[in-house]
Write a structure and sequence with these properties.
The protein is mainly alpha-helical. The protein is 70% helix and 0% strand. Helix 2 runs antiparallel to helix 3. The protein is globular, with a radius of gyration of 10 Å. The termini are far apart.
Length: 53
């Protein structure tokens, strides 16, 4: 949940190589014990990142 550059790069690789689906990732993001706005921001990042792959 640190959302560091290296963490985002790792997640992008998982998505690009299809080791993780964006649907699964977003479902897991919504389960995180963080403020709603933070979950929305990360879910939005996932959706935008998948579009760019």
């Amino acid at each position: 949940m640190a959302f560091r550059d290296k963490d985002r790069e790792f997640v992008l690789t998982l998505l690009a190589e299809e080791f993780l689906s964006s649907t699964t990732l977003v479902e897991r993001v919504w389960r995180l014990p963080v403020p709603h706005a933070e979950r929305e921001r990360i879910a939005r990042w996932v959706h935008l990142s998948v579009q760019e792959l």
